[in-house]
Design a protein that fits this description.
Layout lengths: L3 E3 L2 E5 L2 E2 L69 H21 L3 H5 L6 H16 L3 E4 L2 E12 L2 E10 L2 E6 L2 E6 L2 E12 L3 E8 L2
Antiparallel strand pairs: 1-2, 2-3, 4-7, 5-6, 6-9, 7-8, 9-10
Helix pairs in contact: 1-3
């Protein structure tokens, strides 16, 4: 495994994939891809959590544009099967986790993804959770950068551990603090393989993320 970086965003870091922050001058935009952190749940720089409230049924989802951040983003729901300690459960959970990555990108809300991520996942903390927290503090939003994914293999390594391999790609993206004035731009990421190392402890959690070299 080796590090891979696109623009100023760390997309793959030694043995990990990174939903990384990007620095434009003194500004640190939100994430675009998944690197390993000491504490992704506390997050070294993440702000305190706020509760996540579901959009009302009458509120229409509006994707982010150069003029404004996304509004009324649907909150991912964990399927019942994703709670099972089985191959099907691990596969379903991995798909749910990627939906949380996309949700975190659109909203800068990491309260849900933190609940299903261990403190040992450095990639998750440094490149998904912490960057989204910094972006939220700066009122920064991301346009684009959606992660498209497909599970390609599930392998149980122990009674409470499973590795889920996925193929994924990321759309190009732009970051804004002021409308119509992008702080940074990221090119799309072509199809890439990564593995989610899952730990089962009364439910699945991502324990580490490893990307291909």
């Amino acid at each position: 495994m080796s590090a891979r970086k696109i623009a100023c965003v760390a997309l793959l870091a030694a043995g990990s994939i990174a939903l990384a922050a990007c620095d434009s001058g003194s500004t640190a935009p939100p994430t675009q891809t998944p690197t390993q952190s000491q504490d992704n749940q506390g997050g070294s720089s993440a702000p305190s959590e706020t509760s996540t409230s579901a959009p009302k049924a009458t509120e229409k989802y509006e994707p982010a544009t150069a003029a404004a951040p996304a509004k009324n983003v649907p909150i991912p729901t964990m399927p019942a099967v994703a709670k099972n300690n089985s191959d099907d459960g691990a596969k379903s959970f991995a798909e749910y986790y990627f939906s949380l990555i996309n949700y975190s990108i659109e909203t800068n809300d990491v309260s849900l993804i933190k609940k299903v991520t261990t403190r040992q996942c450095q990639v998750c903390g440094e490149d998904i959770i912490d960057p989204a927290g910094r972006a939220k503090q700066k009122n920064m939003w991301q346009v684009g950068g959606k992660h498209h994914f497909e599970v390609i293999d599930v392998y149980k390594t122990a009674n409470n551990r499973t590795v889920v391999s996925l193929r994924y790609k990321v759309d190009e993206s732009e970051f804004y603090i002021m409308k119509y004035k992008p702080e940074a731009k990221l090119e799309s990421l072509p199809s890439t393989i990564l593995a989610l190392n899952l730990l089962y402890d009364q439910g699945w959690k991502v324990d580490s993320i490893v990307g291909e070299s």
